[in-house]
Design goal:
about 290 residues, alpha/beta, 8-stranded parallel barrel, binds flavin-adenine dinucleotide
């Protein structure tokens, strides 16, 4: 049974996301993390694609290696940034040869210093166009992104849901969310998306917050546009770093259990290439009876 079969039969999936590192030290950290994956038995892992194709070779190398050495289904991300259709076709061809079955198809962000996304003259403006190319010319399963708190460039949540529906109509078989910390925001989004005709499984992106600095105004989490609920800040508290980490993990466990009780399609952990926090959350979920099949 592939993970997409599982998703479509209503069995929640467990997955982890990694990024191709830049330095030898960071590769060493990542390989230690990847070594923990067989024990966690995810349904798939995904590998991000750097801005403007900057990680093109590293993404493809890492994807092939994980798939081959760990025998875990691996989903590479691919973005439209800076690529012509021909270049995208070349990359898709390479991924096909590496035995990849599923692609996470995204538009990507405008490069730093550029206010708005500009498509390559012979490329794509929206993820839905890349998805159509993949559906029409390659036999990959396709995933796409969605934003429970609205994509920052979308004028309204409704127009962003229409964009998600277009990705579904063009061939996406599942969608994974931007991270969020307030489940009610996701439940409201899901109701609206379903009312607008979205039927594909919606997997949620999870990030266990393990320190207060992660919530800094210019930090990764704020840049993702996620609202930080007061209850998360209160739960983390201050003081001893280990105690803060334990409370952050506890928050993520409760957030995950609530999502699973509300029949979310799957949990996808943004690992930042370290698995300590997400593996503790996963073990706790298994001890509560989740992810046993
Ligand atoms: P789209 O779906 O194309 O949407 C982009 C914007 O255009 C939205 O505001 C949407 O509402 C609007 N829009 C879409 N279609 C239309 C239309 N026809 N008319 C008018 N407006 C429209 N980035 C990376 O660089 N590398 C990664 O590996 C990566 N992985 C990600 C994984 C996940 C799960 C998620 C949620 C995001 C990821 N991103 C990644 C970030 C993503 O590339 C950015 O958020 C990007 O700005 C939008 O990508 P998208 O695929 O959602 O774009």
């Amino acid at each position: 049974m592939t993970f997409l079969d599982k998703l479509t039969s209503g069995i929640p999936t467990l997955s982890f996301e990694f990024s191709p590192p830049k330095t030898p030290a960071d590769w060493a950290t990542l390989y230690t993390t990847l070594g923990t994956m067989p024990k966690l038995a995810p349904d798939f892992v995904s590998v991000t694609y750097g801005a403007g194709g900057s990680t093109r070779e590293r993404t493809i190398d890492l994807v092939s290696r994980v798939q081959r050495e760990l025998d875990i289904e691996t989903v590479p991300h691919l973005t439209c940034v800076g690529h012509s259709k021909e270049e995208l076709a070349d990359i898709l061809g390479l991924l096909k040869k590496s035995g990849i079955r599923t692609i996470m198809a995204l538009r990507g962000d405008a490069p730093k210093g550029q206010n708005e996304f500009v498509a390559h003259p012979d490329g794509f403006l929206y993820a839905s166009d890349l998805i159509k190319l993949i559906r029409d010319e390659y036999q990959f399963q396709i995933g796409c992104g969605f934003y429970p708190e609205k994509h920052p460039e979308a004028s309204t949540l409704e127009s962003d849901i229409e964009a998600l529906k277009r990705k579904q109509d063009n061939g996406a078989g599942f969608a994974t969310s931007q991270l969020f910390f307030d489940n009610d925001i996701f439940y409201r989004f899901r109701d609206k998306a379903v009312a607008a005709g979205v039927t594909i499984p919606l997997v949620v992106g999870m990030l266990p917050v393990t320190s207060q600095p992660q919530l800094a105004p210019n930090g990764f989490i704020r840049r993702c546009g996620a609202e930080i609920p007061g209850k998360l800040i209160d739960s983390l508290g201050q003081g001893d770093a280990k105690a803060v980490m334990d409370r952050g993990i506890d928050y993520a466990i409760h957030q995950s259990m609530d999502l699973l009780e509300h029949e979310v399609a799957g949990l996808h952990f943004y690992t930042m290439n370290r698995s300590a926090a997400s593996s503790r959350v996963t073990s706790a979920l298994r001890s509560h009876g989740y992810f046993l099949k």
